[in-house]
Amino acid sequence: MKGLLLKSASTGENLEMIYLSNKGEITQRIIKVEKVGEESFKEYCYKRRQSRTFKLSNVLSIAPLKHHKRGA
User: Fold this and answer.
1) Which domain of life is it from (predicted)?
2) Number of independent structural domains in the chain
């Protein structure tokens, strides 16, 4: 997971993340990674339209954003 975050930070590729908040809420977000630390990472959250910091340990799932092709 950390390798994917580091790659995203260097390439600017957006990721799709499922995250468990400290309040126990599960959210799905599209993010752009800005900086990766030892226990957390800073990213731009398109859902909240602001930069936020998340704990690595609270990430449930993270993957490259899938681009959907439109039919002809």
Assistant:
1) Bacteria
2) 1
